[in-house]
Design goal:
It is a single chain. By secondary structure, the chain is mainly alpha-helical. Helix content is 62%, strand content 5%. It has helices spanning 2-35, 40-43, 69-83, 90-96, 99-104, 108-113, 131-149, 164-180, 183-190, 196-207; strands spanning 55-57, 64-66, 156-157, 160-161. A two-stranded antiparallel sheet has the order 1-2. Helix 1 (2-35) runs parallel beside helix 8 (164-180) and helix 7 crosses helix 8. The radius of gyration is 19 Å and the shape is globular. The model has no long low-confidence stretch (mean pLDDT 93).
Length: 208
């Protein structure tokens, strides 16, 4: 079960990598077009990332709470680049940002400040789907990525094989990327970069 789990985790790695890169790049293109600024990731630190609506007073404590996560993440990326003695450019900052940053663009406040632009990256979003559904999907895929990275059980529970989770998550990644562009998953299969189904089949053979 441990070896099967390791192979399943390994097979998900390229898919998760492409998921993050595609999401990141598509959001960058859409937001750059929205602001008419390819350097938005740097310039918007003093723009929507610092909007007054992101600051409020907590009802229980009366303390001022500032949701400056996006700004702090960009500054962290800039600091990392400077620590590596590399010039700070929009492209390098974007490459340093983690999936949590891009996921946060679908949070209510950030999404509203961006006037719904994050959902414009989808060519085939199902009817009735919007910010909430997309946000939930990204969170679930982030959880899968963390489970893969930490060698947590994917295909068994209580010493019993169970492929339900991996099948569901594979379908969700497939759906998500297909909402952006139906050709993405096709291209991954054509380049032999998607081997998840093959490993699922192998594992199910073990179960027999």
């Amino acid at each position: 079960m441990y070896y099967a789990n390791a192979r399943i985790a390994q097979s998900f790695q390229p898919l998760l990598s492409f998921f993050e890169v595609v999401l990141r790049n598509q959001l960058h293109y859409a937001i750059a077009a929205h602001f008419g600024d390819v350097q938005w990731i740097i310039n918007q630190k003093t723009g929507f990332m610092s909007d007054s609506s992101l600051t409020h007073k907590a009802k229980k404590t009366g303390k001022v709470v500032v949701n400056d996560f996006l700004k702090r993440e960009v500054e962290r990326s800039e600091h990392t680049l400077l620590g590596k003695k590399r010039n700070v450019t929009a492209g390098r900052v974007i490459a340093e940002l983690n999936l949590g940053f891009w996921n946060s663009l679908y949070e209510t406040h950030h999404y509203a400040l961006l006037k719904g632009v994050p959902c414009q990256i989808f060519k085939n979003l199902p009817v009735g789907y919007g910010r909430k559904e997309v946000n939930t999907m990204i969170q679930e895929i982030r959880m899968l990525r963390n489970r893969v990275s930490h060698n947590e059980p994917l295909c068994f529970s209580n010493k019993v094989f169970d492929m339900t989770y991996v099948k569901e998550m594979y379908a969700k990644i497939n759906d998500f990327l297909s909402w952006i562009n139906p050709e993405i998953m096709v291209s991954l299969r054509n380049e032999s970069l998607d081997s998840v189904c093959l490993e699922i089949d192998k594992t199910e053979e073990i179960m027999k």
